[in-house]
Amino acid sequence: RLHRGRFVWPRSDREIFTLDTHEWQWLITGIDWQRLSAKPMGFVCG
């Protein structure tokens, strides 16, 4: 999305946002952070 000249940043009262290494990589590669799940995906084997 950055290559399209726009980026939607979540609104917050804080002026400084901290990103870890993974979040930075997601941001610069264009992964939609809003579609990421906070829960790890599990597998059922049987």
Give a description of the structure.
The chain is mainly α and 46 residues long. The protein has a domain at 2-31. Helices cover 20% and strands 0% of the residues. The protein contains 1 helix and no strands. The protein is extended, with a radius of gyration of 14 Å.
Brief summary of the model shown:
The chain has 46 residues and is an all-alpha fold.
Stretches where pLDDT falls below 50 for ≥5 residues?
none
Helix content: 10-25%
- The secondary structure category is mainly alpha
The N- to C-terminal Cα distance equals 40 Å
Element string (H = helix, E = strand)? H
**Number of continuous helical runs:** 1
**How much of the sequence is in beta strands?**
under 5%
